[in-house]
Each structure stands twice: as structure tokens, then as C-alpha cells.
């Protein structure tokens, strides 16, 4: 392959997407191609947008092909389907790219990747899309949206989610709220920082970012949170990174440690700690006084990707960068750690989950999870809460949290645990806790992305009584 192809953003996006369609994780496939090419920032951003966008919008793009082509999307050669996705994604979702550029570069992709005989088909399908799109009375998007009279399927096709996921949300939130949630999940994710108040203040970090030309603003109800409002470039280049002034952590994830409310001098166990965002936050809230055990497996059971030693290593690296001394890393399965029985004042179980609250960050997660993986995870979560609850001293606290929006992994896990353990009860957060704003009458803390503009989260604080 010639050098020009290796530096073409669309060719690199095609190579990454081909790997994704073979089963690679989207972030790993993207990193692999970006490391091989020396690209200016604008081209890197285009590759990233195309790879994440085409992965996220896969179902909608397939619906376009189904409507416009003589053969359905699943009948197309796999690589040709990927090339069509790239062209259609640019036409539908990248208004800044001229239509002619989107069509011509996609035709060129087909020619360069073994489909010289089908360039006419590619050109014709994309131009047919443009003709339909430009009709005032019936845009392609509208035509796709009414292909199904089933409201669940309609939302799934229009916003590119599997039907079972839409169904789970509609049962909880209704159709209108689910559509708002889908729209939010397809937005580019925000980057939030958690300021390390042992080293600096949010005001100082905000001023340093402003001096570096990066706009930021505080997040309501969260005393350590700053949201970046402009493109920041490589995160390690921002002021204060090397000095340990801050770390990247979404606002809703910051709520979890506030709900735990750890105190200086206590023993705290973070049972599923890697890569350590919440572990280091706990240390900051404790003024780095006391003992925190950050525990995790090298490989995670359940449906999410394997944890690797690098995730636990990241916990250690972050603790060092933030200059925190109170954290001890423990390798192992929290279901098999009898040494911790009745030792902790507080335990955090941020359980492995399906991640249905963070789908905007993980473009391929919506296609990887299934009702079956949710069942597996629910079983794992019940085992974990049963075992880690034994780590808590009499009168101590356990916080259970997930970044999913599925009752089987949230309310049902906690209700099942409470039914089997009458000496535990839900404890609502105090009025001055940042988490109190999100508390429900039942005592659950629920963050709904389309309402609070943060990752979707569930958490609950439990107290162990005699």
C-alpha cells in the first residue's frame, strides 16, 4: 500500500473499522492505526470521528443501505459495507464535509480496496441518498424513521440502538424520555476533571486552563469538578497534569465517593478499583489520612472486556502522580478475600456492569451487550455484594454503584441483597451531600444523562446494623 493511502484519514478509518467488524474493541483498533501514521490534529480528529461515528451509527447506516441498495446491508461484502458506512456517515452526520468530497473519497476508497468494479454502484447509491436528502418533502432520515410502525424498532433504527436496549429504557422512562436519552448518548462525550484539592483549588486550575487557551466551567453540586468547554488536545499537555493537580473523571462518577463520605483515619476498601478514579478520590476526601485498599482482578468475570495488569498499573501511576500515599493495591477477586472480613469502616463496590449509562464513551458497547450478558452480570453483582458486605464492620457503610441504566443490575441486585440480609438498610445521603440532589424517595441515587448532562449512574448507600 502506498504512503499516500497510509496517511489518508478515510483509509485509516476504513482499516480501523474493518478490525472492529472482526471483533476488535473500537478504541484499540483506532489507537493501532493512529500510532502507525503521523497525522496533523485535524486529520486525527477526522479519523476518530469517522471510526466512532460509524460504529455508533451502524444500525442507521445499515438501514440506509437496505433502503437504497438492491441487496440488503448484510448481503453486501463486509468491506464494501464498511466503505458505504463511511460515505453515508459523512453525508448524514458531517455537514462540514462537502457532499462532493464525501462521495468522491468514498468512491476512491472502493477503488483502492478491491472494489474497482463496484465504484459505479457506490457512486450511484450515495448520489441517490443525496437526492432523497435534498427533497424538501421527504428526507432520507424521515423515510428511515417511518420504515417501522413499531415504536421500539423505530427508535432503534433512527438512533442506532438494539431493540432490547430501547425496550429496557422505555419501560423505565417512557418513549419521549427514551428518545431524549438516545439523542444524548449519540453526542460527543464531555471531558470532566476532578481537582485534587490537597494540591490546589478549582479556581487555580480554571485560571491555569484559561491561560492555556482552554475554557472550563464548574459543574453544579460537585465541589471538585470542572468541565472542559473547548478542544483541549492531548490531556497530558494541560497545565497541572504532571503536578497532580487533577485527574479525568466524569462528574457522576465523582458523586460515588461523596456518597461513600470517607473520613480521615478510616480503613476503606474499594472492591473493584481499577483503573482507580474512585480510589484516588476516596484518598483525597480522606486528606490522604488512613488506609485504602484498592482491589481488583487481573481478568474480570462477566461480559465486559478483560482487565489487564495495565489497569491496575494505572491505579498506581495515578496515585503517584496525585502524590497520594494512603492507597495499597491488592490483586485478586473480591469474592475470595477472607482477610478483609469485618475490617473496613466503609466499602465501595463499583460493580462490573453493562455500561448502559456510558454508551456515548464506548461506541461499540451497544452492540456487545445482550440480555444474556446482563443476566450474567447481574449474577456476578449479587455475588460481589454478598461477599464484600462481609468486609464491613458493625455500623459501617457499603456503597453499591454501577454506570448502567438497567434495573436488573441496579434496584434488583440491591433489593435481593436486602431481602437476604435484614441487618442492612438503605441510608439516604445527608442534605449537605452532593449526592442528595439526585436521591429518589426510595433512597437510590440515579443520574439520568439526558436530564443531568452527566454519565448515567446508579448508586445506593447501605448501613450495616446489629
Summarize the structure in words.
It is a single chain. The chain is an alpha/beta fold and 466 residues long. 47% of the residues lie in helices and 13% in strands. It contains 19 helices and twelve strands. It has helices at 3-6, 9-21, 26-36, 41-56, 58-68, 78-93, 99-112, 119-134, 140-145, 151-159, 163-185, 202-211, 251-260, 277-285, 309-321, 365-368, 371-388, 411-420, 449-452; strands spanning 192-195, 216-218, 225-228, 246-248, 267-270, 291-296, 327-331, 344-350, 392-402, 424-426, 445-447, 457-464. Strands 5, 6, 7, 8, 9, 10, 11 and 12 form an eight-stranded mixed β-sheet that branches. The chain has a four-stranded antiparallel β-sheet with strand order 2-3-1-4, with helices on one face. Strand 2 and strand 3 form a beta hairpin. Helix 2 runs parallel beside helix 4, helix 4 packs across helix 6 and helix 5 crosses helix 6 (78-93). The longest helix has 23 residues, at 163-185. Mean pLDDT is 92; it is low at 136-142 and 300-308.
Count of DSSP-assigned helices: 19
Low-confidence stretches: 136-142, 300-308
Task: Count all strands and give the number.
Answer: 12
Give the overall pLDDT as a whole number.
92
The largest sheet is: 8 strands, mixed
Instruction: Estimate the strand proportion.
Output: 5-15%
Instruction: Indicate the structural class.
Output: alpha/beta
Could you estimate the helical fraction of the residues in percent?
40-55%
Shape designation: globular
Span between termini: 70 Å
What radius of gyration results from the CA coordinates?
24 Å
Amino acid at each position: 500500500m502506498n504512503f499516500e493511502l497510509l496517511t489518508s484519514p478515510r483509509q485509516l478509518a476504513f482499516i480501523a473499522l474493518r478490525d472492529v467488524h472482526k471483533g476488535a474493541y473500537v478504541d484499540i483498533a483506532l489507537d493501532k492505526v493512529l500510532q502507525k501514521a503521523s497525522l496533523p490534529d485535524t486529520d486525527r480528529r477526522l479519523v476518530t470521528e469517522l471510526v466512532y461515528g460509524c460504529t455508533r451509527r451502524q444500525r442507521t447506516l445499515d438501514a440506509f443501505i437496505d433502503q437504497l441498495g438492491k441487496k440488503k446491508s448484510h448481503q453486501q461484502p463486509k468491506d464494501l459495507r464498511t466503505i458505504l458506512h463511511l460515505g453515508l456517515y459523512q453525508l448524514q452526520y458531517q455537514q462540514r464535509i462537502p457532499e462532493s468530497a464525501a462521495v468522491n473519497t468514498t468512491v476512491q476508497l472502493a477503488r483502492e480496496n478491491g472494489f474497482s468494479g463496484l465504484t459505479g454502484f457506490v457512486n450511484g447509491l450515495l448520489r441517490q441518498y443525496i437526492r432523497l436528502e435534498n427533497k424538501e418533502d421527504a428526507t432520507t432520515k424521515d423515510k428511515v424513521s417511518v420504515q417501522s410502525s413499531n415504536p421500539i424498532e423505530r427508535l432503534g433504527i433512527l438512533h442506532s440502538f438494539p431493540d432490547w436496549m430501547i425496550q429496557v429504557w422505555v419501560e423505565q422512562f417512557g418513549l419521549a424520555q427514551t428518545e431524549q436519552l438516545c439523542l444524548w448518548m449519540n453526542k460527543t462525550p464531555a471531558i470532566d476533571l476532578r481537582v485534587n484539592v490537597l494540591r490546589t483549588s478549582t479556581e487555580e486550575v480554571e485560571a491555569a486552563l484559561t491561560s492555556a487557551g482552554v475554557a472550563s466551567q464548574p459543574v453544579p453540586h460537585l465541589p471538585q469538578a470542572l468541565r472542559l468547554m473547548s478542544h483541549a488536545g492531548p490531556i497530558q499537555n494541560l497545565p497541572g497534569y504532571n503536578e497532580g493537580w487533577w485527574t479525568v473523571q466524569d462528574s457522576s462518577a465523582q458523586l460515588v465517593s461523596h456518597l461513600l463520605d470517607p473520613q480521615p483515619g478510616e480503613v476503606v476498601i474499594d472492591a473493584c478499583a481499577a483503573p482507580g478514579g474512585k480510589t484516588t478520590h476516596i484518598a483525597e476526601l480522606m486528606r490522604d489520612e488512613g488506609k485504602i485498599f484498592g482491589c481488583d482482578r487481573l481478568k474480570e468475570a462477566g461480559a465486559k472486556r478483560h482487565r489487564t495488569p495495565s489497569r491496575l498499573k494505572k491505579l498506581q501511576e495515578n496515585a503517584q502522580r496525585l502524590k497520594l500515599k494512603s492507597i495499597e493495591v491488592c490483586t485478586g477477586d473480591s469474592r475470595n478475600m477472607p482477610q478483609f472480613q469485618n475490617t473496613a469502616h466503609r466499602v465501595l463496590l463499583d460493580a462490573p456492569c453493562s455500561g448502559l449509562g456510558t454508551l456515548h464513551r464506548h461506541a461499540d458497547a451497544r452492540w456487545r451487550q445482550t440480555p444474556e450478558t446482563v443476566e450474567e452480570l447481574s449474577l456476578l453483582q449479587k455475588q460481589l455484594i454478598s461477599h464484600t458486605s462481609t468486609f464491613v464492620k458493625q455500623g459501617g457503610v457499603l456503597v453499591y454503584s454501577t454506570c448502567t441504566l438497567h434495573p436488573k443490575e441496579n434496584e434488583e441486585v440491591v433489593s435481593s441483597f436486602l431481602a437476604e440480609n435484614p441487618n442492612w438498610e438503605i441510608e439516604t445521603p445527608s442534605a449537605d451531600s452532593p449526592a442528595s440532589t439526585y436521591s429518589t424517595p426510595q433512597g437510590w441515587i440515579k443520574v439520568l444523562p439526558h436530564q443531568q448532562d452527566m454519565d448515567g449512574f446508579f448508586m445506593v448507600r447501605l448501613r450495616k446494623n446489629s
